[in-house]
């Protein structure tokens, strides 16, 4: 490819990059690049020179946001090196983050976080996601959803963003602080409170974080575990109709519930993670 053709092709690629600045700025940037890569001095043709120019352009294209925009990165783009986890199944997806925090993604939910997450615990959310956060006072855990920010040290809560951009945060344990982009006001939630942000209006309400089983058959508890935790529960036939009265935190750790049933009925249990099955005997 001759010099004129190569120059034409490179400028075509250059102009296809995102318009983060004005056309005048892009044109000035191109002329500066062109003057260096295609100097008019007479010299022997060296193919490697144009290959190097193409390589420089490729580097510029990869880092377009930095090359065309010298302004500092916006605070809204907090996740740079992205790890994206999305639940494209019809069941809850369980994820353990690099800091050992646990996440449950409902169908169609998505989370995005950076490569240095253990030191910079910032995460973006789309959809319905439950968090059980590992305590780390030196590195606050922040969840960004639409225009809201949830800041925690160690707790369990649900963040949900619906298609109409309504954000709901329900707190089950611990404490969280809520912020809205562009506002100085802060909301600190207590367990059993939920924060709602819709149509640029924020409110805090109470919600029932427990589920009560009063004089229910043990088989009903087994079904509850299957539907909410995704584990099949096998209970001895003689115990299926045994009655139980119990209050459970809706986001209680599964093993805590299983141990409680085991102690109440003097049953042994086995949790098979491969089969996703709990067997009482």
Automatic annotation (TrEMBL):
Domain FecR protein as annotated: residue spans: 87-177
Source species of the chain: Flavobacterium defluvii
Sections of the chain in a coiled coil: none
Database matches in PANTHER family: PERIPLASMIC SIGNAL SENSOR AND SIGMA FACTOR ACTIVATOR FECR-RELATED, PROTEIN FECR
UniProt biased composition (Basic and acidic residues): 1-14
Domain of life: Bacteria
UniProt domain Protein FecR C-terminal: residue ranges: 212-274
Transmembrane segments: 50-68
Protein name: FecR family protein
Keyword Transmembrane helix applies: yes
């Amino acid at each position: 490819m001759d010099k004129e053709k190569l120059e034409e092709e490179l400028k075509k690629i250059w102009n296809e990059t995102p318009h983060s600045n004005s056309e005048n700025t892009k044109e000035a940037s191109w002329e500066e690049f062109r003057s260096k890569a295609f100097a008019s001095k007479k010299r022997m043709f060296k193919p490697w020179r144009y290959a190097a120019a193409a390589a420089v352009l490729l580097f510029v294209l990869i880092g377009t946001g930095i090359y065309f925009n010298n302004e500092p990165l916006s605070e809204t783009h907090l996740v740079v090196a992205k790890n994206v986890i999305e639940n494209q199944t019809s069941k809850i997806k369980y994820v353990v983050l690099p800091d050992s925090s646990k996440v449950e993604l409902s169908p169609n939910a998505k989370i995005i976080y950076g490569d240095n997450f253990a030191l910079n615990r910032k995460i973006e959310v789309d959809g319905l996601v439950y968090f059980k956060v590992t305590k780390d006072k030196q590195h606050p855990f922040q969840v960004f959803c639409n225009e809201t920010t949830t800041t925690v040290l160690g707790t369990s809560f649900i963040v949900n963003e619906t298609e109409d951009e309504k954000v709901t945060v329900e707190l089950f344990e611990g404490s969280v602080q809520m912020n809205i982009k562009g506002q100085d006001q802060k909301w600190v939630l207590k367990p059993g409170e939920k924060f709602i942000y819709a149509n640029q209006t924020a409110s805090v309400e109470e919600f029932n974080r427990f589920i009560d089983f009063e004089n229910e058959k043990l088989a009903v508890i087994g079904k509850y575990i299957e539907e909410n935790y995704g584990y099949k529960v096998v209970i001895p036939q003689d115990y299926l109709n045994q009655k139980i009265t119990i209050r459970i935190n809706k986001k209680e750790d599964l093993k805590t519930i299983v141990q409680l049933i085991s102690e109440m009925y003097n049953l042994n249990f086995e949790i098979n993670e491969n089969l996703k099955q709990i067997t009482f005997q």
